[in-house]
Specification:
The chain is built from 17 helices and 3 strands. It has a 3-stranded antiparallel beta sheet with strand order 2-1-3, with helices on both faces. The protein starts with a strand and ends with a helix.
Length: 404
């Protein structure tokens, strides 16, 4: 079906831009008008431009706004406010016009008799699957307020997890960029002046000096290579990461990288424990919980392990026994705490402990990352400048020796 991009006004007078997919222009107009918008402009659009426009609109909706929506809706439901009224009131007080429009569309769908979780499922581009699943469980059990409160807590923990990872990788990235910049500066601006002096002396240059002069000439004449190579490597990584034949091996390599494997493994373990906790506490079945976690995990090694764990559990194994078969991917503490939870009947508490444990561990790693990687950076920078100094001093030493 063709895409139609539109410009419209909502009930608050805000300008809304978006797109719809319909067979005809008339059907697209009717769909936009049915969502409560006054159409100002409507025209057929290319799929690429529509995809780009939708992506920009979605990026403006932050996770913090989703968390605030869940918290406010939970409070209003606990106070006995009708669901459609609560959604309408929250939409009216939402500053982000794109998120406000999404909430108004959900309100319209609820008004037409569609369930809340089903209405949310029509907007999977902003509401994660666990949000929709727990809302559906809350509707079935009559605990929608508690489910929304759990969702807000879970999403906040996931945001804390992202912040910890960002802090952890910030120092290595800046250190790498700084080192590369210093090396490029020496090759382009400093070494050429020294190399011209050595060449004018008509002396035999040692191999290390000749190598530095070659590197300097290459950097000056083909400087663009230093920028194209990182771009090429990044594009190659993206392409290989999207192919199922190579993604597993790339993910396995990530788990073996020194230092960085601490960030990746603890992040995945924290995500596993937190997802499992929130789903199990909400009453979602084990097999359905594992299906959701398999979709959420962005590492094929963990996905494969969770798929095997699900099959073992379906054949009668306990959760702890199934996880134990995938050591050391899942460390001993995970097996032990889940085993205790199964034995005592308080699996939710044990999973909550594991979630906080790995989140705290990741936060601790992020704070110590600078000290952990500092020796490596000092060694690399020291070795780099040692080579440069030897390359500069060797010809001078040979010249002085020849004079003697």
């Amino acid at each position: 079906m063709p895409f139609y991009s539109y410009k419209a006004l909502n009930s608050q007078g805000d300008i809304i831009r978006g797109s719809v997919e319909q067979n005809t222009l008339e059907l697209a107009y009717d769909k936009i008008a049915a969502s409560g918008l006054h159409v100002v402009k409507l025209q057929k659009s290319f799929k690429l431009s529509v995809t780009y426009l939708n992506k920009l609109n979605l990026q403006s909706i932050k996770t913090a706004e989703i968390i605030e929506f869940a918290k406010n809706l939970s409070v209003m439901q606990k106070a006995g406010v009708q669901l459609i009224t609560a959604v309408s009131d929250i939409a009216a007080s939402t500053e982000n016009k794109h998120f406000r429009q999404k909430l108004l569309e959900i309100e319209k769908e609820i008004d037409l008799g569609i369930g809340f979780s089903e209405a949310l499922s029509h907007h999977k581009d902003i509401f994660p699957e666990i949000f929709i699943s727990l809302t559906a469980v809350g509707e079935e059990t009559g605990r929608i307020s508690e489910s929304l409160s759990d969702i807000a807590l879970h999403l906040q923990r996931m945001e804390d997890l992202k912040s910890a990872i960002a802090r952890a990788v910030m120092y290595p990235v800046f250190a790498l960029i700084g080192t590369a910049g210093a090396l490029f500066f020496w090759l382009v601006y400093v070494l050429p002046k020294m190399s011209s002096l050595f060449l004018s002396l008509s002396i035999e240059l040692p191999p290390i000096t000749r190598a530095l002069i070659f590197a300097s000439d290459f950097a000056r004449s083909r400087w663009y290579v230093f920028f194209l190579v990182p771009v090429f490597l990044y594009v190659a990584y993206i392409v290989l990461s999207r192919r199922e034949a190579t993604k597993y091996y790339i993910d396995a390599a990530k788990l073996r990288l020194p230092i960085f494997n601490l960030i990746i493994s603890n992040k995945l373990l924290a995500l596993f424990a937190e997802q499992f906790r929130i789903l199990f506490a909400a009453g979602v079945t084990i097999d359905r919980s594992l299906d959701i976690m398999i979709n959420v995990m962005n590492n094929n090694v963990f996905r494969t392990a969770l798929t095997d764990i699900k099959e073992d559990i379906m054949h009668g194994s306990t959760i702890s026994e199934s996880i134990k078969n995938h050591h050391p991917l899942f460390p001993t503490i995970v097996v032990r705490m889940i085993s205790i939870g199964e034995t005592t009947g308080n699996l939710t508490e044990q999973l909550n402990y594991l979630s906080e444990y790995f989140l705290n561990k990741l936060d601790d790693i992020s704070q110590k990352m600078g000290k952990m990687i500092e020796p490596i950076i000092i060694t690399v920078i020291g070795g780099m400048f040692l080579v440069i100094i030897l390359g500069l001093l060797s010809p001078i030493y040979n010249l002085i020796s020849g004079i003697r």
